[in-house]
Amino acid sequence: MVLEPILCPSCGSEDVVKHGQSEEGKQRYKCRHLECSRRTFIRQYAYRGYLPEVKQQIADMATNGSGIRDTARVLRISPTTVIEQLKKKPKTESGE
Fold first, then answer.
1. For a Cys-Cys bond, which of 27, 29, 31, 49 suits 36, CB 3.0-4.6 Å?
2. Residues facing 18 on adjacent strands
3. Contact predicate 22/14, CB 8 Å
4. So where are the chain's domains?
């Protein structure tokens, strides 16, 4: 039997424990690293809008002047997801 280590997608820590299941029945994990920005995660999300790569693409497209509906169509996600992601306040390291 081969055990595959679970790594946190944010900090890369191996200090991860199981943390219940999602509504879709997928295993949820919790990162116990104190300085990690993400507390819980799922290894394979059912919806593309939750992926960190897609969230970054939303920010990049907004910076380049793409509209909400255009961004949603290109990334194949809901316009509501695009709006909610853009409304989120970016975290600053200085604590302002």
1. 31
2. 29
3. no
4. 1-45, 47-89
Q: Do the beta carbons of residue 53 and residue 69 sit within 8 Å?
A: no
How many angstroms separate the Cα of 21 from the Cα of each of 9, 55, 69?
18, 23, 32
Q: From CA 3, how far away is CA 46, in angstroms rounded? A: 24
How many CA atoms, within 13 angstroms, populate the side-chain half-sphere of residue 52? 9
Sign of the CA dihedral with 89 first, then 90, 95, and 96 last:
negative
Q: How far is CA 79 from CA 5, 71, 90, in A?
A: 35, 8, 19
Sign of CA dihedral 67, 71, 54, 29: positive
